[in-house]
Amino acid sequence: QVTNYVMVSAKKFARENLFSLLLVQTKSKKTLAKPGVKNIVLVEGVRTPFLLSGTIYNDFMAHDLARAALLGLLNKTSLPKDAVDYIVYGTVIQEVKTSNVAREAALGAGISEKIPAHTVTMACISANQAITTAVGLIAAGQCDVVVAGGVETMSDMPIRHSRKMRKTMLTLNKAKTLSQRLTLLSKIRLGYLTPELPALTEFSTNETMGHSADRLTAAFGVSRREQDEFAFRSHSLAKKAQDAGLLSDVLSVNVPGKGIVSKDNGIRPSSMEQLEKLKPVFIKPHGTITPASSSFLTDGASAVLLMSEEKALAMGYKPKAYLRDFVFVSQDPKDQLLLGPSYATPEVLEKSGITLDDIDVFEFHEGQILANLKAMDSDWFAQTCMGRKSKVGVLPIEKLNLWGGSLSLGHPFGATGARLVTAAVNRLKKEGGQYALVAACAAGGQVVFDL
Amino acid sequence: MASIRALGVLSRMNSRRPCLFTGHAVRNFASSAAVLARTHVNYEVKEDVAVIRINDPNSKVNTLSAQMESELTQVMNEIWANDAVKSAVLISTKPSCFIAGADINMIQACKSAEEVTKLSQEGQMMFDRIEKSPKPIVAAINGSCLGGGLEFAIACQYRVATKSKKTVLGTPEVMLGLLPGAGGTQRLPKLVGLPSALDMMLTGRNIRADKAKKMGLVHQLVDPLGPGLKSPEERTIEYLEEVAIGFAKGILSKKIPLTKEKSLMQKVQDYVMGIEFVRKQIYNTVNKRVMKQTKGLYPAPLKIIESVQTGIEQGPEAGYLFESQNFGKLAMTSESNALIGLYHGQVACKKNHFGTPQKEVKTLAILGAGLMGAGIAQVTIDKGIRTVLKDTTEEGLNRGQQQIYKGLDDKTKKKSITSFERDNTLSNLIAQLDYQNFDKVDMVIEAVFEDLHIKHQVLKEVEAVVAPDCIFATNTSALPIKDIAAASKRPDKVIGMHYFSPVDKMQLLEIITTDKTSKDTTASAVAVGLKQGKVIIVVGDGPGFYTTRCLAPMLAEAVRVLQEGVDPKKLDSLTTGFGFPVGTATLADEVGIDVAAHVAEDLGKAFGTRFGGGNVEMLKAMVEKGFKGRKSGVGCYLYKEGTKNKEVNPGFQEILGSFKMTPSAAVSSDADVQYRLVSRFVNEAVLCLQEGILSSPVEGDVGAVFGLGFPPCLGGPFRFVDTFGADKLVQKMKRYEEVYGNHFTPCQLLLDHAKDSSKKFHK
Q1: Interface test with chain B among A215, A331, A332, A374, by most B beta carbons within 10 Å
Q2: CB-count exposure of residue B761 (10 Å: 0-12, 13-18, 19+)
Q3: Do the chains contact at B420 and A218, CB–CB below 8 Å?
Q4: Residues 6+ apart with CB under 8 A from B289
Q5: How far is the C-alpha of B490 from the C-alpha of A265, rounded, in Å?
Q6: Is B639 helix (H, G, I), strand (E, B) or coil?
Q7: Which residues of B are catalytic?
Q8: ipTM of this model?
Q9: pLDDT tens sequence across A344-368
Q10: Omega into B502 within 30° of 0, i.e. cis?
């Protein structure tokens, strides 16, 4: 287990981008509709169970997971396979054999080969990017029905030969005579055989994500205790939601040779005492982030069905929420790597003309969320770093991630975005709220409304 | 074995460490009331940890001044006496300086070696008490930790440093002709091992935090923080303090071990170093290498080795005694005096004395992508200035771009920058063949061929396309600026910026103003030069300005010496033996024989027979045969890729044969040859001051050392006259004058100084 956690440092994938999205419940009186802009609705959202990497999904490739989510969505909504206009998926670590994983998944799910599909990547908000791509396609009148989602598997990853070895092998292809080949082969040294793992660090700063996160918590003075408490909260809430059957977006997936999986397996409520015993993983010995306060490596896929409102109604669907406004912002990748929500939240609120108090449901990605909460509550930060007159405000924690989050449910990089949106929508329904705000680091801001 | 590196004083007098010692006046602690209100050091007890904060309110950096030391002693005594305190953290509240060293003025104020020795012993005693402290002390280091600062830190029980780029550790005393005099020569070898310790102390180089951790110089690293709820600087120091307190508590509770388990390599090294024979070999090898590099002209490195050796072989008592006594002796040497003078000069030449320019240069254009042009571009783009590099041919432009890429890529390979930073820096470079967008350029530096007609043509082309307030700087080594400016519509915007090749290595920039150049133009040129990291002298206009003008008569003399039958290798060893980093024959090859011929002819015309000596025709004959120096692969020497051993060019010897002159035995001893070369250089420098080309002797010394490689141990031509004695120099020159005539006629200012020995260039 520990190795699993420690490898979270492989999470270079949250980059400097930030995202937030505003959702509106479809039944709201105030839908924040904009004149001349099409209403875009979320009809349904699903996901495979999120599992610890190296467990039950061990033999799956990414497109297998994506296919499972896609099929699950089609079945749940009884959407005819030929009614889909377009498919977009987000992913972070690409399997080179299936670089357009959206297309492979769609073909495997029996969707017509005439339906185009593409894959996007934007670190931890890749699925958010897929969703907003879909929104763009619908808003522009290109499509009416789009499936967007995300997928990630960390049970397998492309480990390459070293550059020198690859170079030799490629030259070998061109060698014509035996002697040329032998000369090339004789140049291979032991060092050439060292494999190259997917980069563990930010390309531009050479810093691992965990390291960056630990510096960020220190910059905002987030204590070890606060982090342990938050991790404890996340696991407890997730457990409660799971037991109460609130995680209705989770599909049952049949894994060949292993049986049916229908529950997330990373939720492990423990005690504060146990959490206190854990040692820091990234900055030793004085860091504050432990395996509990960072997400574990996760496999999983998610999908949402988006339509124009007219189309949804015409097809007889009851849309769950309007996708109203979204924002992507970018920050310095060194010192503000994980501060996305702080930057994106106020922007999306301003665009929509509502305030923090109007929001009923917050679904934030749990990457360094505490630092973000402190940043939003700091006048100094607002004035110095965000160029705002005053702080964004205190985020009501009683409305935040009530059904667990990335720390407890897991964080398959490419898939988390769609999980956040679906969770926000389902919570709006359940709690009877009007507005939901989704935010994640690596980039952007979306706001969701319930219909 | 030990990676002992050269003592390259010249290249190491690097501006990046200007806070090594500061020049602020010796404390105003006349009133002993200072005891009550401490201004430099205070402390706070957090639980059972005393946090000692140091901050010199009168300076940007902390130095171990008398005031600082006395307050530190008081504070330490209080902490030791306080039973509630179990451990301590030592930290500076300055954002980029822990302690930058001892107060140099305190040393310079001493009149005798004994006085300096006493200072050293006081320091040794203070750090001895720190080392033996019953309560563990953690040094929390952020920013420069140099000289006495490092000696302080290594006396503490534990060291934590931030991984900031500003955090550097080192013992730069050697660059001032001194040795680490507060226990450094004794503690450092124990801490990092004999080879690394000698390397640090003999080179004086700065060590970055991550390297320091690897060497065992610090125990832990702390990452600098980005913006959070406070400014990054403020929060980083706060965080460093929090972490250091954690370690202080950890040491007390024995959770944090003070000694690290040694790696196998270290154990092996320790074992090997335990053998007396091996140590002896090391001392010998290092000694030999130092002698080879310094020609015995610098006493400090030898004393450092001896001090380390005494401590290890005869025990600490003898070691500490040797260290303090020799610190005192070294402080009184002329070499140390010269190096300290240069240090002060360098600091003075790193300031803009012409005010803030009205308009900041944000876009700079460079004409000519040759060695010089590309070099200027390289030191400009990494300062965030958009730089247009223009050439007339695609081939030339490509060559220039390759040179810049290589320069930055070499830094990447040495890991001083990341590949990302390299690419980002290169994005500031715009290479083009035309004058597109020149209307948005704030300053143009031309580095085209040294020909007045071409310079005029370029000037007119530029003035036709640039905005009216754009500055035109010309990079020439000898053409008078006023002649170039004659073609300008706005001579107030024309200025000379004389860079030295290779631009990324040579620190000097000589800025030349004409009587028409406006003050704002000068301020702007100086501002750009400072951004490029240059040490700047501003001189008046005239043929050869200051630097070229001093070099020309020395080169003329060198040619004569060669014509008189001295072998080029012999000539080189005579000049390096005098302290020049590069021998004169090699220097001529580096400058380029064609350039030398050009300059010699031009200046010969301007100054007449006084600039004679060797025959210019001989240089021309070399150029005709293609012997243009290093750039053509053949000059006085033959240059071959990959080998360092160079052979004298037989073709050159042939030419020498046909220009043979008969030496005069009376003035041809080795020493006479040396003084013939140097006295012409020095006389011309003094004449430049006399004529007002130079505005101060300080700039003259800095220019000669940093631009031309005048021996740093002599401190520059003016300090040389002060130390050697103007009268003695004049005597020598008179003797040479009898043989060679007006080449050796001392100038009036030099004669004045010879007559009155109380006259000194440096007070």
Answers
A1: A215
A2: buried
A3: no
A4: B4, B6
A5: 78
A6: coil
A7: 510
A8: 0.87
A9: 888 888 888 888 898 999 999 887 7
A10: yes
* Contact partners, residue B689, CB within 8 Å, separation at least 6: B696, B697, B700, B718, B749, B761
Confidence of residue A20 (pLDDT cuts 50, 70, 90): confident
Q: DSSP states of B149-185 as a string?
A: HHHHHHHSSEEEEE--TT-EEE-GGGGGT---TTTHH
Q: Are B390 and B435 in contact (CB under 8 A)?
A: yes
Helices (H) and strands (E) in chain B, counts: 31, 20
Q: Note the pLDDT tens digit of each residue in B226-239.
A: 888 999 999 999 99
Cβ of A336 and B222 within 8 Å?
A: no
Asked whether the beta carbons of A321 and A25 are under 8 A apart, the reply is: yes
Count CB-CB contacts under 10 A for residue A268.
14
Query: HSE-up of B631 (CA within 13 Å, CB side)?
Result: 15
> Is there a contact between B308 and B194 (Cβ–Cβ < 8 Å)?
yes
Q: List Cβ neighbours of B638 (8 Å cut-off, separation of 6 or more).
A: B646, B647, B648, B649
Give the number of other Cβ atoms within 10 Å of residue B757's Cβ: 10
Mean pLDDT of B363-385: 95
- B245 contact residues in A (CB cutoff 8 A): none
Do β-strands B87-92 and B49-54 pair in parallel, antiparallel, or remain unpaired?
Answer: parallel
- DSSP, collapsed to helix, strand or coil, labels residue B478 as coil
Burial of B524 (0-12, 13-18, 19+ CB in 10 A): buried
Q: Which own/partner contact pairs does B457-465 have at CB distance under 8 Å and 24+ positions apart?
A: B458/B367, B459/B484, B459/B487, B459/B488, B459/B494, B460/B487, B461/B435, B462/B367, B462/B435, B462/B438, B463/B488, B463/B489, B463/B490, B465/B435, B465/B438, B465/B439
Q: Do B232 and A211 touch (CB under 8 A)?
A: no
B220: contact with A, CB 8 A cutoff: yes
Q: Partners of A147 in the beta sheet?
A: A87, A305
Beta carbon pairs, A and B, within 8 Å: 63
CA proximity to A62, closest of A282, A266, A298, A406: A298
Q: Which residues of B touch A332 (CB under 8 A)?
A: 226
